[in-house]
Amino acid sequence: METGTKSVKPTRADELADAIASAARSSERLAIRGGGSKDDIGRPVRAAAVLDMTGFAGVIDYDPPELVLTVGAATPLCEVDALLASRGQALAFEPFDHGPIFGRAPGAATIGGVIAAGVAGPRRLSQGAARDHLLGFEAVSGRGERFVGGGKVVKNVTGYDLPKLMTGSWGRLAALTQVTLKVLPRAPMQLTKLVAGLEIPAALRLMAKAMGSKAEVKAAAHIPWSAKHDGRSVTALLLAGFPASLEARGRMIDALIDTQERLEPMEDAECAAFWHDMAVAASLGRARPLWRISVPASRAAMIGEALQLAPQDQLFDWAGGLVWIAYEGDAVRMRAAAEAAGGQAMLVRAPTAMRENVPALHPRLPGVAALEERVRRAFDPLGIFETGRF
Q1: pTM higher than 0.85, yes or no?
Q2: Matching CATH number, 189-352, of 3.10.310.70, 3.40.462.40, 3.90.1150.10, 3.30.930.10
Q3: What does pLDDT average to over the chain?
Q4: pLDDT tens digits, residue range 48-81?
Q5: Rounded CA gap, 359 and 118, in Å?
C-alpha cells in the first residue's frame, strides 16, 4: 500500500469517530493500516491519508476457563499467540503473518488485520475459518459512528451476524477497534505423517480419504516438488492430541497409505515449522507473482493442467481446497483456469506494474458485485474507505 504523507493516529474510539467524520466532511479517503504486513496486496494507494490504528492495542479481557479473549484490534498476532500459549490455548483457525510472503520478517501482523482479511492457516479445513471464531467486535463505520457486533458468548442471536460480515471485508466497511475471539485448548502433541512420490491426482485422493476417515486429521497438504526430498513430491497429514490418541489414529493413517512410500514422521518443532512454511507458501520462493486459488478439492488439479504448470510452481493445502501458484503468465488466463475448475483466484504478490492493472480479488458476478456494493454503502455511504486498493 502506497499512501499520501498525511497520517492520523487516534488512540480512543471517540477520536477515531471524529477523524472519520472529519474525513467525510472534506471528502477525504482514509487507508486503514495496522501493522502493514499485507500492504503489498492490491493496487498501490497514493491518494489517501493513513488511518494509523496502532493506538488500539493490548489485552482488554482474557478468561481462559471460558475460552474467550478480547484484545485491541492492533495487538500484534505474535503477542496474541504467545499469551494463549502461556495458558495452553491457541487460535484454532491458525492465522499467520503475511510478512514472509513478501520477504519480510514476521511480527507486523495484527489480530485486526487477520480478521479483516479473513486469514486462516492449514487447520482451517478441520477447525473452521476466522469468521467461525470471531464472537464480537467494536468498530467505527464510514459514517463516523461507533457500533458493536456480536458479543462475548459463543451463542449470540441478538441480531444480524455482523462478525461474519466484517471478517474478510478488508477494511472496506469499518475500522475495527477491538475483537473478541473464541479460543481452544492447544494440543499437547502433534505429528505429521509423510508420503513420498505421489502424483497430484493420487495425492488428492489420499487426502480426501484421510480427511473423511476416523483419524481426525487436522490438516492435509501436498507439495508436488520438494527440494528437501530430492525433488520428489511429499504429501503431509497432520494429527494432534494426546500421545495415546495419536498412536491409535496414526495406525489408521498407516493403513490408508500402506502401499505408498512412507517417510519418517515429523513431531513438535519440526512439525510446526513445516506447516508454517506451508501457510506462507515458502517453497514457491519470493520472486514470482503468487496466486491463491480457492477451489473444490476434487478439481484442484485442473488448474495446473490448464496452465501447463511445472510441479515446483504449485502447492496444495486444505486437502486440495486451497492452491498456491507461482505464475508469471497472463492474469486473464489464470482466472479463466480457476473459474473452469469452479474456483476463484486472488493475486497476493506481484510487481507494482502488475498490481496496478490486475485486481487482487477475483471479479464478482454482477449480482454478487451489486450486493457487495449495497452493503459497503450501508456502512460507508461516502466511500471514505474506498481507496482504490481493491
Answers
A1: yes
A2: 3.40.462.40
A3: 94
A4: 899 999 999 999 999 999 999 999 999 999 999 9
A5: 18
